[in-house]
Amino acid sequence: MKKVLLMFAVLAIALAGCNSNKVDVSKLKPVTTHKVGDLSVVLMNDTGDFKQGQNEFVVQFQNQQGQAVDVGDVQLGSSMSMPSMAPMSGDSEITPTGQTGTYRVKSNFAMSGAASSFLDTQNGVTEADLVTRALASNPSLAAERYEIEMDEGGVAQARLHKNPSLSVGGLKEVNGDDNRFSIGASIPLELFGRRARRTEVAVRKLDSTRDTIADRERLLAGEVRMRFGEALAAVRNLAFTEQLLQANRDFLKLMEDRVREGAAASLDAEEVRVEANRIDALRIDFQAKAEVALLVLKEAVGIQPEETIRLRGSLDETARSFDQNQLLQLASAHRPDLAVQRANEALATADLRQQHAEGKPDAAFSASYERPNSGFAQRAFDAAGNLDFRTRD
């Protein structure tokens, strides 16, 4: 909170009190205190701070000894400036509490200026909302997520045994009655853990795909957060420039009044006018930068440029303290890009183990049945094997 402007008039008629509206000021926290002559105007509420939107607080008039004093009829108007937000002002409703010099106030601080078109602290989108939307609507991530489903299917397929083979054949004598019919089947045995090695490779590939997508999500979320912060900073600069412009315009009006009264030279007023025009040009530049920052944020999230959004957030952040070793542990344990490298390393190791298994001899069980029409039925049994004599390191 930078400022709270209070305007009040003391009239001769005292307000009628209402005992049912009393407050326990000892439980309230002071928000700000302003000196007005010999009086102190103290604003208090439950939190010790104001927020944009509806606020309820207590105003108490105190003398130099800190005791509440009666000032008669009170009128209150308020304005507020908060970090990273545009200046805000709002109508106030003040009611007596029945206690000496103490009043209840309800005030709705509404934003003003061009910066208000970028922010909405009630219904605006937060940083988390934009990150969630970006992760859900990014087409590249959506395409890569299908790779997870493909790799899951690859794992299920790798766990299956190889399909058996079936062969059917027949022979017939040319210009004769002799013929022969045969049928056979073969089942691969997959020796030396071939199926386990094949499954391991598929599982490692699935892990690598998941970690790669998690890293892409991290990068996208980081970009959205950065663009969100840049947009808030641009709006903050615009709001500050608007406040500075308003102050210079008020000063220019004062100088013009002094010139009319003959208390100041016209050249002094012209110098203030030049400065006000310079700040107005600066405000236009900051407004353009805020609009560009908002467009860049929309692009990062995947929002169409014509869609209207208002932001809700603040550049203020709670101070945190981390130990260097703690930061290193967090980075080593939670960074998705490191997880991707570990997954690729595990995939390469699994692929090497599969190649070693494939380089060893394999066998298949096969059986066949043959029936010639001119002789007797025969049954046969044989076994076949694949011998790989490739050089193995």
List the helices and strands and how they pair.
Blueprint: E1 29-36, E2 39-45, E3 53-62, E4 78-80, E5 88-90, E6 92-96, E7 102-111, H1 127-137, H2 139-158, E8 165-172, E9 179-188, H3 194-261, H4 266-301, H5 324-334, H6 336-358, E10 362-372, E11 378-386
Antiparallel strand pairs: 1-2, 2-3, 3-7, 4-5, 5-7, 6-7, 8-9, 9-10, 10-11
Helix pairs in contact: 1-3, 2-3, 3-4, 3-6
Task: Fill in the keyword field for this structure.
four-stranded antiparallel sheet; elongated; Outer membrane efflux proteins (OEP); disordered N terminus; 11 strands; seven-stranded antiparallel sheet; 6 helices; 393 residues; alpha+beta; 2 domains
Amount of helix: 40-55%
Overall average pLDDT:
79
Q: What is the number of independent domains?
A: 2
* Cα end-to-end separation: 73 Å
Number of H- or I-type helical stretches: 6
Strand content: 15-25%
Rounded to an integer, what's the Rg over CA atoms?
Answer: 40 Å
Q: Write out the CATH superfamily name of the largest domain.
A: Outer membrane efflux proteins (OEP)
Write the element-wise H/E pattern from the N-terminal end onward. Answer: EEEEEEEHHEEHHHHEE
In total, the number of strands is 11
CATH topology of the largest domain: Outer membrane efflux proteins (OEP)
Could you characterize the architecture of this molecule?
With 393 residues, this protein is of the alpha+beta class. The chain has two domains: 94 residues, no CATH class; 272 residues, Outer membrane efflux proteins (OEP) (Up-down Bundle), CATH 1.20.1600. Helix 1 crosses helix 3 and helix 3 runs antiparallel to helix 4. The N terminus and C terminus are likely disordered.
